[in-house]
Amino acid sequence: MTQSNTLKGIVFINGKPIYTYNKALTILELGSFYGINIPRFCYHARLSIAGNCRMCLVEIYKSFKPVIACSTPISDGMEVYTDTALIKHSREHVLEFLLINHPLDCPICDQGGECDLQDQAIIYGSDRGRFRETKRSVQDKYMGPFIKTIMTRCIHCTRCIRFTSEIAGEPILGTHGRGKNTEIGMYIERAVTSIFSGNLIDICPVGALTSKPFAFSARSWELRPVDSIDILDTLGNFIRIDTRGSEIVRISPRYNRNLDEEWISDKIRFCYDGLKTQRLTVPLLRKSTISGQRSYISISWQQSFQLISQLILQTLISSSSLKGFKFALGDLIDVETTLLLKDITHSLGVEAIPLSPAAKISNNDLRGNYLFNTKVKYMDTINLYFIVATNVVWEAPILSLKISRNVSTIKRDFMKLIGYIGPNLGSNNFFAYKHMGLCNSILIAILEGRHYFSTYITLIKNNVFFSNSLFCDNFPILVHFINKITNCKMPVNIIQKNINSIAAKEFNVEASHMFFNKFIKKHRVDILYVVGNTNTSVHHLAHTYLIYQGHHGDENATNAFLLLPSSTFTEKSSLYLTNEGVCNHTRQATLSPGVAKSDFDILLALSLYCNFNTTFKKPNELLLYLTSRGLFNISFSHFSNNITAILTKQAKATMPLNQINRFASVKPSIYNFYSTDIISRKSRILQLALNRKREHNFYDLRY
Ligand code: SF4
Ligand code: FES
Hints:
The structure is a single chain. The protein is α/β, with parallel strands linked by helices. About 25% of the residues lie in helices and about 15% in strands. The protein has 21 helices and 26 strands. The strands form 7 sheets. The protein has a 7-stranded mixed beta sheet. The chain has a 5-stranded mixed beta sheet with strand order 2-1-5-3-4, with helices on both faces. The longest helix is centred in the middle third of the chain and has 19 residues, at about 300-320. The relative contact order is 0.12. Iron/sulfur cluster (SF4) binds near residues 160, 184 and 206.
């Protein structure tokens, strides 16, 4: 609830005076803010008001009948009563009507224990019904691989209809029939394909829409919740991990005050089965058998460290320096590991080489070059979005919700615009945008002022620019371009490919501007130590000893000689730096399998074993350093200053406009939303989502 500082009136709730500073509130909103409980089913703070369940009835002084609190606005001097005998009686009758057709299957319902209807029935329900006729039953609907439907339980609150049309951008649900024949469903039955479809499970107040993968796996009171964050995109949205025993059985959203959102994407919600597939559990050493086939033997941590120290010594003896020893950072590495790795590379005088070309894009001297220069919280107030080469819906799903909410007002406000250059977003997108083309020539035309969008950029105030960190094929043009738009005071926001890239840039860990697969063609690499799973496979390793540290087996693990098992983000408490410059943290929800350890613990133990001359010898020394560096409270005042100056310097060193290939097309960095990282690729549930447009048989997909 936002409030201005001017007193707008006084409202009495149950005789208690409440001073209000905002007149645009309903009785229910004001009551909730002051902790006065008013029952509700159809009301949801993030959706429009429907007012159809009638459960929130309250009495207003001098009103001849009860009114609904969710849609009645407050007024000065209003006297509201929420707990009179009439109100209690009215709510009991409303509930009796809702329960007429609701099945009595709470013992086998997955919503049991966290069902709004069950909670209200305890307060307002009767121990017997008066309805003697036959209860109606409704056929279940098919909504895809994530959502299980038992439509007989539906109370027609219409939250799901409003969610799909107002938030998920896929208005496929509606009501059919009238009176007792009313049903919620689709006009043409098909799967819900929105990447936010899983949120339907949370907003349904009863057990009509539940999670298909979670079905019958646990009762809600058996779960242990742990607060954590989503590290599969760079905004670090807040999540809650529910575990039963040693297993993760559910992931759901938490309100995120930095982003002002409470939805999560299906990728993080359903990725949890990928956390236990193809895990490395013990250190493994590769041996070649006489027949030339690979075999692995398990070794202890001490033997692994001994082997690494011998390898380092051998390299030092054979080439009298450690030039041939390189590190590489994975995609999902935490802040502590990144900083410790930087410390180790400094102490040994070696380099960390970027595995992906994305590292090249920005100068890391200023935070404004790799962090957002606009707060995500305020993204829904922007007038012009200029998006180049990035599918915002896939690369920053929460950001796309903000944009879509703002753009849905386009019809009323002609000054709001989205200009997009890149491949057609097709059905993946859910907001209206002006598709200007997909090659460099459009960008150059805008730069030279020959395109109509140039005028918009110059004239419209309060605008933002988005691109992604893989736009480096067009690096020279981007630099020219950023110079132009920063002169127009348009904040530049580069969406990083993975959450680790931000900490890597913050600490300037990856020294080289040449990525590994190019680097190895020109330089000799004797030992490559890859810390963490990555999407990029390393090649040309004929003379290189590959050490791989990660939680899952992947292509790099197949090529490695020594494999060290590490923990996933759900098995450790670690820090992650988001694209907004906020330092969020995960909490340990489960134990690591086998003898796997966190990346930080492995590197720290290795550094102590080999006696590296590092600054950080204990975890708390590192945390003290991070605090002193102000990483926990980066403020937006750091950003935007001097960004033009630094980029102008880069532009001078870059290619003139007339030498740029005008017909080269702009490419996005993500081609498949459900396969962007090792965890989602290993998730069977998420891989089903890829097929959901082709699915026809609901029963084949039961878990
Ligand atoms: S399915 Fe759930 S959310 Fe949708 S109308 Fe029915 S009760 Fe409400
Ligand atoms: S919550 Fe008010 S009518 Fe449903």
